[in-house]
Write a structure and sequence with these properties.
The protein is mostly beta strands. Helix content is about 5%, strand content about 30%. It has a single domain, classed as Distorted Sandwich (Deoxyuridine 5'-Triphosphate Nucleotidohydrolase, Chain A), CATH 2.70.40. The N and C termini lie far apart (about 45 Å). It binds deoxyuridine-5'-triphosphate and magnesium ion. It is an enzyme of class 3 (hydrolase).
Length: about 160
């Protein structure tokens, strides 16, 4: 690991490239030895305001090349949620391994105050994860289980 906190955990290699004009935006990195997420920063050129109840798509200035069999999840930062009520509209966002566009974050302000954002602010975190793909085959009758078709609080709340 060249940047960020070093770790003895297994790691995969993921190529990253900055979009034009984002050369000053720090690459995402793990902030502690065993952090699961790397923070994504806002690639914006002027201050952005998100009013209560409003959402905005914020570009992060990077593109990644995930190996097949992996995804990246874009997840909220709990600090922004706890302090300002700001989270991700589509949490967790899914970055497919074949996506080569700029990573973007859909921030929504569920708080009561206008939220303001500056260039380079850390707005979300990226968690790389393995993916299991399934082949769906049709079957007339599914195996019976203890739960059966009970859901939505079937076991009590
Ligand atoms: O928070 C997100 C979610 C997605 N993406 C990018 C990467 C992902 O691979 C692509 C498609 O995302 P998704 O499958 O969630 O969106 P969709 O509405 O199903 O679009 P598509 O038809 O392109 O799959 O958009 C982001 O940059 N940020
Ligand atoms: Mg899709």
């Amino acid at each position: 690991m060249k940047e960020g906190a070093s770790s003895s955990l297994d790691e995969i290699q993921v190529a990253v490239t900055r979009v034009e004009g984002a050369e000053d935006i720090p690459l995402p990195k793990y902030m502690t030895h065993q952090a699961a997420g790397m923070d994504l920063a806002a690639n914006i050129f002027e201050e952005v305001y998100i009013e209560p109840g409003e959402y905005k798509i914020i570009p992060c200035g990077i593109k990644i090349e995930l190996p097949p069999g992996y995804e990246a999840q874009v997840r909220p930062r709990s600090g922004l949620a706890a302090k300002y009520g700001v989270t991700l509209l589509n949490s967790p966002g899914t970055i497919d391994s074949d996506y080569r566009g700029e990573i973007k974050v859909i921030l929504i302000n569920l708080g009561k105050q206008r939220f303001s954002l500056k260039r380079g602010d850390r707005i979300a975190q990226l968690v790389i994860s393995g993916v299991v793909r399934a082949h769906l085959y049709e079957k007339d009758k599914l195996d019976e289980t203890q739960r059966g078709d009970g859901g939505f609080g079937h076991t009590g709340v």
